[in-house]
Design goal:
Layout (H helix, E strand, L loop, with lengths): L14 E2 L9 E2 H8 L7 H27 L7 H4 L1 H26 L3 H8 L1 H29 L19
Length: about 170
């Protein structure tokens, strides 16, 4: 969803290479296309927010990956599960989208941007909740797979990787 409804002719061939080889890389152009980002955002801003989001999501999920890899030598999320790969990209892009909210009011000083700036916290919360939902899906999928392969004790009870997003 574009904040101003105009996406412009923004194109990018940049690919954000993931520091953790287990997780997929993210194409900046896919981020622009999926979220219909306005052309007011500079590519460097998009790249920085995607890198930051990728780091945050990786930090949230690394324990689940290590649990799975303790019983299954899977090297990438792509080879393990396509739906979880899609969920990972969604988590990263939603987190980055939430991070971009703070830039829009300064990038575009029109009246519409000021209204969006006033609603920035609400919009940020929506994107953050969506990102956490995607991370929950991934962590639950990784834990379920690890449990089926014997990584968890039979008497162990866990929260299936779910986080409380809203109170």
């Amino acid at each position: 969803m574009s904040l101003n409804g105009i996406t412009g002719n923004t194109t990018s061939s940049k690919i954000i290479v993931n520091a953790n080889a287990f997780f997929p890389d993210i194409e900046v152009q896919a981020f622009i296309d999926i979220y219909r980002l306005p052309s007011e955002y500079k590519e460097i801003t998009l790249v920085q927010e995607l890198k930051t989001a990728m780091y945050q999501v990786n930090e949230e999920l690394i324990d689940y990956v290590l649990i799975l890899q303790s019983v299954d030598p899977v090297e990438t999320l792509d080879e393990y599960s396509e739906p979880l790969t899609h969920a990972y990209k969604k988590a990263v892009m939603d987190t980055a989208r939430a991070g971009l909210i703070k830039y829009f009011e300064t990038a575009n000083r029109k009246a519409a941007a000021e209204v969006q700036g006033d609603r920035g916290d609400v919009l940020k919360d929506v994107w953050t909740e969506a990102a956490y939902a995607a991370m929950d899906q991934i962590s639950k999928g990784l834990l379920d797979a690890a449990e089926k392969l014997g990584a968890m004790g039979k008497k162990r009870h866990h929260a299936n990787g779910f986080k409380a997003v809203t109170i």
